[in-house]
Amino acid sequence: xxxxxxxxxxxxxxxxxxxxxxxxxxxxxxxxxxxxxxxxxxxxxxxxxxxxxxxxxxxxxxxxxxxxxxxxxxxxxxxxxxxxxxxxxxxxxxxxxxxxxxxxxxxxxxxxxxxxxxxxxxxxxxxxxxxxxxxxxxxxxxxxxxxxxxxxxxxxx
Length: 157
Description:
The chain is an alpha/beta fold. The protein is 42% helix and 22% strand. It has helices at 14-27, 49-62, 82-94, 112-117, 131-149; strands at residues 2-8, 32-38, 69-79, 99-103, 120-123. β1, α1 (14-27) and β2 (32-38) form a beta-alpha-beta unit. α1 packs parallel to α5 and α3 (82-94) packs across α5.
């Protein structure tokens, strides 16, 4: 099984990148984990929000194959405690997908076609935050989930 955090755009903050990389290394002790991204076209700022979502959605969907399990990180998704998120992941792992993608969108969110193609949606918070910061928060929560699943002492409850 391979896990991928698929993002629109790269993380350009070196401090965030260092922290994300630290948690990524930790996750890789449990499972194969990587980051991937799509780069929107250079003229994206000239497009209307709906067109931006469409273009980004097409780029994201090109990265996914039919058998992949895709989970959107979306404000309208299900809210979990860390423990419940670990249980949610364990159920997905037990169902046997080869590739699991966690997908973050761009500034305007996802196009309707992306919502139709994914298996699940989760929310990290009802608050709005930058997409770059979401990558760090999610990577830490993913690591935390693996420590819960594996009875590692990182998580205290």
